[in-house]
From TrEMBL, chains A, B:
Keywords: ATP-binding, Ligase, Nucleotide-binding, One-carbon metabolism. It comes from the Bacteria. Belongs to the formate--tetrahydrofolate ligase family. The keyword Cytoplasm does not apply. Its EC number is 6.3.4.3. InterPro entries: Formate_THF_ligase (IPR000559), Formate_THF_ligase_CS (IPR020628), P-loop_NTPase (IPR027417). One of its GO terms (molecular function) is ATP binding. ATP binds at T68, P69, A70, G71, E72, G73, K74, S75. This is Formate--tetrahydrofolate ligase. Coiled coil: none annotated. Pathway: One-carbon metabolism; tetrahydrofolate interconversion.
Length: 559, 559
């Protein structure tokens, strides 16, 4: 089955089953589905509700070391493991995030797994899919337009245009929109003010979509969103502007989970797509819970390294959803650890066990961190064909000496078959009794206390400082009594610290919080650190520039 | 069948047929469709191509008097007539535009017909539908991001940031985005420049979608789009930025026509949605041609009054597509003519035949205009329950004395049955021999000549003046040899003139052109007149504020 075909070639060669057959594996009928073509479907409210009466399956969380330009393959491993569980006789359902067009056209290309462990149809999933991203964009920007319109039409709520919190979004990497001035052009064009755009995945609407129980909860949460301060310094919520109903109408289909299949016809719920660096990084609770209700094993992933996605999965998603993983798989690659050990990307081909040993510090820190949440941990070594036997042996031995089981995963080349070793370890570890939920911090602690705990215990830093503006924002939130919520840290994904250059397992660093904002709809507080940006830019040669489509609709360059 | 139920109530009570059955009426099989739920489908490239071998049916264009706040019901009439033709034993297929979210949440509410003459499912059509609008937005904004990124990454093409023509778009009424500054924030955020956002329907991508023959033509046209001047004053096209392939990928599904059905299960192709005031106002050529290939009669509509949509249908769409309507129906209402005759909206209830007589001047001008294109003309009087018998009789007599046949249309209350009278007149008039295509102007004429012809012959004005900037733009386009294309006038829809206050049939006015830009992808030149804006604003109480959705997904307030 080994092949060097590209992801899109493999995708196009795969024989897909009608999505109705995939749904049947989950106990869903044709009536439970809203078809989007033959291979994609949304699952109705009624079906989601009916399934709630079923027993919960086990939950496996897939996370990773800090990403490097070498690539880790976390989504690929998630898909591969779901396929492997099926081969081992367990009914597995994957619950994953939807890709954003920003990275698709930026550096990364597609985000639907790879090789023989993909979710399909990958072209659709990587492009407009079932329109959820666009619905989030529209709902977000309807609220933004309503704010400026309210001010323009008399400003009954006395919104302070200097202190509008709500930002417009686009699902695009567009750095020119990071800092803007809107409302110029005189009396017919509203009141001028400074503004910013974010990428759609950073919208609080996306967070709300991923944390809501149902459409009613979604609407309630959207009405609760804080959009601005008034001239007296009070907070103004979206509900006051009267558009929460219209926003919910825009989200009525987006809240229904999407069903697709993997290259081996395993069901995959792909729903919601916040980034883990500038948002909370986990797919929707609705999809994860449905995967648990329809599978013996639900397998989900959290974005970027375990310092970001997994920490937020544990401290935000699990806290709100009342769930806890039965096992955590940390994806690591020889190549990534070599980069964490100081090797340049151009030198990765050469065997270098010393670098693996040095770079292991990054993996070790993530293992240690996951143990703090009191869950069984497995390392999934995603093999690349350039990895040498000595390097793999070195990494496996390092894991063993650290007291953690590790398995090698060949899911890229071999699909589910390549995931047997890791899947078997996971199954064995999940046989033990389930431990109670154990978050890292108490949500009732102050914002600085929560941040300090995350920085010192998860990131391995020595302290956190709040810049002047951020410190003032903390004081304000305390005065409003809005600080007793989980914290969602916006931070570079490349390092455990807030400095992208510090690879491996840095120590002694101080994390700088430059902005603090409350998400009263999502129910968390965002602390922006370092120089993280909520609107990415395109690289010198964007992935978009290699893409094309022929007269028959065949796509090239999307991978 | 008469009822005072709201549009959405009627829509929700209608028994829809599976879209596969509707497709079968058109000679399309299940394999020709990409289903979006049970009641919406896209039609495959292969099916569109196969149908091209069929004979053409007749083509009926529905247009109207200048719209007033009283409402005219042009889309409703289009749907009703399609249903009426079916009752008369003719296989009719409607070809219509997709609504934009801007008006849906702004003043207008939905745009899918009304009463017992709607296209369904109206909630979906009025919201995200099959995602075409969002695809246009994404393709438009990918190009915009590529422009600013190119400048940021070294600006090899020497793009002049003072002269970027391409604008970002959102499918939203958002006046604060009419005039903006982007690229602020220092070195990491690009080069600052003035910018504007338009509403998506005004994007040249939308025009290109509606004028393209197929995906290859779409890609070629998108590559031809002019995006900016360089520092030497040369034009820069989208193709130079290398993203036309990626833009085409984003549009790969949007270019496939959408099939839905009417309240009486008549097929309706709903595809593409440019406004007729700030764009060319006609649905896609692909859909109109497919309607002609699959129906004995294709019935299409052009936006707003006949001065805008119908003129552009004749001079732009028909010219490029090589088609010509066999008949034109001009929709008029007693209420609208009374307003054109000077009656205020609050006084419309009172019988006023004098005002009907006075306001008839507006209808008469549109009749005269349509005759210039050498097509049979019918007036469709859309009856409101407040119209008196005397008013209807007065209007009918006025039409007769003007030498045009008029029929009364009750399609709102009675569906197709209410359209019999108008449909019968149309059928009779179409029995005559087809006349050759006769546009208003020669595309080879200069821009001022073409504008003067439109202003004097269609609008009834005495002259056109180009403001300093517009005159300079004309000179530039002449120097580039890019002035030999049809003209797409951006003008208020409320008046035959460029002043929204001048109702009826004003004379002696001068139209002011303030901006001229070339659309080398679409193949026309946009002349913006008066104070028309390409980004609408929300009213004091937007339609969004009356909308809501309950826990079962039932929508209220969308009509």
């Amino acid at each position: 089955m080994t092949t060097m075909a590209s992801d899109i070639e493999i995708a196009q060669q795969t024989a897909l089953k009608p999505i109705t057959e995939i749904a049947a594996q989950m106990g869903l009928t044709e009536d439970d589905l809203e078809l989007y073509g033959k291979y994609k479907a949304k699952i109705s409210f009624a079906a989601v509700k009916r399934m709630q009466q079923h027993e919960n399956g086990k939950l496996v969380l897939v996370t990773a070391v800090n990403p490097t330009p070498a690539g880790e393959g976390k989504s690929m491993t998630t898909v591969g493991l779901a396929q492997a569980f099926n081969l081992l006789g367990k009914k597995a359902v994957a619950a994953m995030r939807e890709p954003s067009l920003g990275p698709v056209f930026g550096i990364k290309g597609g985000a639907a797994g790879g090789g023989h462990s993909q979710i399909l149809p990958m072209e659709d999933i990587n492009l407009h899919f079932t329109g959820d991203m666009h619905a989030v964009t529209a709902a977000n920007n309807l609220l933004a337009a309503a704010i400026d319109n309210h001010v323009h039409q008399g400003n009954e709520l006395r919104i302070d245009v200097r202190r509008v919190i709500w930002k417009r979004v686009l699902d695009m990497n567009d750095r020119a929109l990071r800092h803007t001035v809107v409302g110029m052009g005189g009396k017919t064009c509203g009141f001028p003010r400074e503004d910013r755009f974010m990428i759609t995945v950073a919208s609080e609407i996306m967070a709300v979509l991923c944390l809501a129980d149902d459409l009613t909860d979604l609407k309630r949460r959207m009405a609760n969103i804080t959009v601005a301060y008034d001239l007296d310094g009070n907070l103004v919520t979206a509900g006051r502007l009267g558009v929460a109903g219209a926003m919910a109408i825009l989200m009525k289909d987006a809240i229904k989970p999407n069903l697709v299949q993997t290259t081996e016809n395993t069901p995959a719920l792909v729903h919601g797509g916040p980034f883990a660096n500038i948002a909370h990084g986990c797919n929707s609770v609705i999809a994860t819970k449905l995967a648990m209700k329809t599978g013996d094993i639900a397998i989900t992933e959290a974005g970027f390294g375990a310092d970001l996605g997994a920490e937020k999965f544990m401290d935000i998603t699990c806290r709100f959803a009342g769930i806890k993983p039965d096992a955590v798989v940390i994806v690591a690659t020889v190549r990534a650890l070599k980069m964490h050990g100081g090797v340049k990307k151009t030198d990765l081909q050469a065997e270098n066990t010393d670098a693996v040993k040095k770079g292991f510090a990054n993996l070790a820190k993530h293992i240690e961190n996951m143990r703090k949440f009191d869950v069984p941990v497995v390392v999934g070594i995603n093999r690349f064909h350039t990895d040498t036997a000595a390097e793999i042996a070195c990494l496996t031995a390092l894991c063993r000496s650290y007291g953690v089981e590790a398995g090698v995963n060949d899911c890229w080349a071999e699909g589910g078959e390549g995931g047997r070793e890791v899947a078997e370890i996971v199954l064995r570890l999940m046989e033990g009794p389930k431990t109670p939920y154990k978050p890292l911090y108490d949500a009732e602690a102050s914002i600085p206390e929560k941040m300090k705990k995350i920085v010192t215990e998860i990131y391995g830093g020595k302290d956190v400082i709040f810049e002047t503006k951020a410190a003032r924002q903390v004081k304000e939130l305390e005065a409003f009594g809005l600080d007793k919520m989980p914290v969602c840290v916006a931070k570079t994904q490349y390092s455990l610290s807030d400095n992208a250059e510090l690879l491996g397992a840095p120590e002694g660093f101080v994390v700088t919080v430059k902005d603090v904002r409350v998400c009263t709809g999502a129910g968390f507080i965002v602390c922006e650190t370092g120089n993280i940006m909520t609107m990415p830019g395109l690289p010198k040669v964007p992935a978009a520039n290699r893409m094309d489509i022929d007269e028959n609709g065949n796509i090239t360059g999307l991978f």
